[in-house]
Amino acid sequence: MSKSYAAFLFDMDGTLITSIASAERAWTEWAVRHGVDVARFLPTIHGVRSVDTIASVNLPGIDIDAEAAAIERAEIADRRGVEVIPGIAEFLAVLPPDRWAIVTSASLALARARLGAAGIALPPVTITAEDVTRGKPDPQGYRLAAERLGVDPADCLVFEDAPAGFAAGEAAGADVLAITATHSHPLEEGRPSVRDYRDLKVRVTAEGRLSFF
Description:
By secondary structure, this protein is α/β, with parallel strands linked by helices. The protein is built from eight helices and eleven strands.
């Protein structure tokens, strides 16, 4: 937290907003319909693309793209319980538009719907599921966001909430800060974390870098 950075890169769900209830309602219905064990399945959905989640179940004879599209429609339609992580509006208001980006495993349509419901505007650089060929934990999304911002990924701080996102940020070479507002289980020991943004104070230096105070 004593370092300064060229840019901040944010995951969306669980990091900028909480939409866990909406997502789990849609995925629970899907799992029940396909005879998948809900209790074991739900922990696997967070932080990864829908197509990757569905593929990981190895169900025979399903159209992965069609199933993912159906899940997306259900999630877009159900925005109950979508809320901002405390303090994020004030935190983002300090950041210059060219110094932060969103990197989400959601589609662009779902990101727009959820962020709109929470009152957060998409920044000029927003990386969604359509922008990558390999989703988290692969670092492609974070590397692409840094490239579009014109900075080195190693000079970025990634804000994440899920293991796939932690791995993606670290593989990109960035520092990673865990946001734990939606966590029900403790993080692995030694991982830097804060609950939310209410006690995070950021300033922009004369050189345009981002630091905490």
